[in-house]
Amino acid sequence: MENDELLLSVERLHQAQSRDRMAMTSDGSDSGETKDPPPGA
Question: What pLDDT, on the 0 to 100 scale, is given for residue 19?
């Protein structure tokens, strides 16, 4: 039971980190590599 909770929290943290990374890369106007909207839009 404890292991499941730990896995869930780690997975949630990983999702949040990847979401932040996507937001920074797609929203950051400093690096104008791709101005395409995120795939989730």
Answer: 86
Runs of H (alpha helix) within 1-41: 2-27
Instruction: Give phi and psi for 13, each to the nearest 5.
Output: -65, -40
Is 7:18 a contact under the CB 8 Å cutoff? no
Residues 6+ apart with CB under 8 A from 23: 38
User: Each residue's pLDDT tens digit in the chain (41 positions)?
Assistant: 688 999 999 999 999 988 888 776 665 555 545 556 666 65
Task: Tokens for 16, please give them.
Answer: 């949040």
C-alpha span between 38 and 27 (Å, rounded): 9
